[in-house]
Specification:
- With 448 residues, the protein is of the alpha/beta class.
- It is 35% helix and 12% strand.
- The strands form three sheets. A seven-stranded mixed β-sheet has the order 2-8-7-6-5-3-4, with helices on both faces. Strands 9-10-13-12 form a four-stranded antiparallel β-sheet.
- A hairpin with a 3-residue loop joins strand 12 and strand 13.
- The longest helix has 23 residues.
- The chain is globular.
- The N terminus is likely disordered.
Length: 448
């Protein structure tokens, strides 16, 4: 059996050159100037080596890594070995000889450095929805009697809301919606009856990054537990779960971690809570002696009690292989490039497509950014409001090789994955966006 691997973190790298440092260019030569800048920025990119680790389609600018990350080039060969040799030749022996049984915790330890967690606190398995259920119910049980409220992000991705509402019904708690973009309002909702708070680190529609350290501290001051959904931040920006005292967290692995469609999610339970963590899904895989087959449930020690049923080995090992792209990559370097990329895209979109400013002050502009300008409030995606024509615009963008996605009714989303997205990609995407907008605007409106 091979030794468990951990994700290596590169030493400090030079900052990515910031587009804002460049001089203002005369309007007549804006396009050429921006393309030249993109080439210089790509040439100076300390993460440019990582792009070659992915199998990217020729001629395509892939800006949908916030929904499904790109395929790492070596994954098919690794999976072929898993299927042909580990399963085909070794068969059931692979549970021990190929390390299948230890995979959920071992792969969790590989992800841990990317979310600022010490080993032994992440387990990989099940979907995000299932892990949200485990985390919310587990947090409510840890909070104890007398605390009846579960605060939930009012703008959350729907599954979090659905699961939290069901968990509350099952445990006799009450759901209280809050807006994490308004910390003062969250503070007012917190109190002695609050058991747990489920929030998203980055909003899936707007790309707004919420104040994880500050909100976690406020939750703790109220005596409650903080549960964070990291689906749109894990692998895109520093999270620092341990440093900020987060209690529980969940995250998917098929976005910025590039684990593949339907890749299993992860559950984080802080070490200080593990002995008391009472999973609402006590499956045989989380038993202290799973092969004893006893009728009574005794939870495993440590994070292993977060396991439920038999691991999905093919998906797990595809994720394991995909995590190799992080060798030699530090999350701080990823964050620096992410901010530079999204700044540059916004600048290009403003120059080419007349992009209005962020926030509601954009009024009725045909294209307006919903993503905050301030770096501390931005994730790794840009969301643009495009009233009335967003579906047609996104369809045409994809047909021309610029792949983003749509969040109805009128939000165009562009995810920037720094490991494989470059500045030339950002410039091209903004240029094609401007062309498509002009075409759609010139077309006659169909009669009702």
């Amino acid at each position: 059996m091979s030794e468990p691997r951990t994700t290596s973190v590169a030493p400090a790298v030079p900052d990515v050159p910031q587009p804002s440092a460049e001089p203002v260019v005369p309007a007549a030569s804006v396009r050429d100037a921006l393309r030249d800048r993109a080439a210089r920025l790509d040439g100076a990119d300390p993460l440019r080596f990582a792009r070659d680790r992915f199998a990217l389609p020729d001629g395509v600018v892939y800006l949908d890594g916030n929904s499904l990350g790109a395929l790492a080039a070596h994954v098919p060969a690794r999976l072929a070995d898993v299927i042909g040799r580990q399963w085909g030749e070794l068969g059931i022996r692979s549970w021990t000889e190929s390390g299948w049984w230890q995979a959920p915790e071992r792969i969790g330890d590989r992800i841990a450095p990317l979310v600022g967690a010490a080993p032994g606190q992440l387990v990989v398995g099940d979907s995000t929805s299932v892990n949200v259920f485990k985390a919310v119910v587990g947090a409510a049980r840890l909070a104890g009697d007398g605390r009846t409220d579960v605060l939930v992000d009012a703008t959350t991705f729907p599954t979090d809301g659905y699961i939290a509402a069901s968990a509350a019904r099952l445990t006799g708690h009450r759901i209280v919606p809050v807006d994490p973009a308004d910390p003062a309002a969250v503070g007012r909702a917190l109190g002695p009856r609050t058991a747990a708070v489920l929030l998203n680190h980055v909003d899936y529609r707007s790309g707004r990054r919420h104040d994880l350290p500050g909100l976690t501290a406020a939750v703790h001051e109220a005596g409650a537990l903080a549960v964070w959904d990291l689906c749109h931040s894990a692998g895109a920006l520093p999270v620092d779960l341990d440093a900020h005292g987060v209690d529980l967290a969940v995250g998917c692995t098929y976005k910025y971690l590039n684990g593949g469609p339907g890749a299993p999610a992860f559950l984080y339970v802080a070490a200080r809570h593990q002995a008391a963590f009472d999973s609402p899904l006590p499956g045989w895989n989380g038993h202290a002696e799973p092969f004893a087959m006893t009728p009574g449930y005794e939870p495993a020690a440590g994070i292993g009690r977060g396991r439920v049923g038999t691991p999905d080995i093919l998906s797990l090992l595809a994720l394991d292989a995909a995590l190799d792209v992080w060798d030699g990559v530090g999350i701080d370097a990823v964050r620096a490039k992410s901010l530079a990329l999204t700044d540059f895209f916004l600048e290009c979109a403003a120059a080419y497509a007349g992009l209005a400013g962020t926030g509601p002050e954009g009024g009725d502009a045909r294209l307006r950014s919903l993503t905050p300008e301030r770096h501390e409030e931005r994730g790794s995606q840009i969301a643009l409001s495009c009233p009335g024509t967003a579906p047609a615009v996104m369809d045409r963008l994809i047909a021309r090789g610029v792949v983003g996605d749509l969040r109805g009714p009128d939000v165009l989303r562009f995810g920037f994955t720094p490991l494989y997205t470059g500045f030339a990609d950002a410039e091209r995407a903004a240029g094609v966006l401007a062309e498509v907008l002009a075409e759609v605007a010139a077309e006659p409106v169909a009669a009702e």
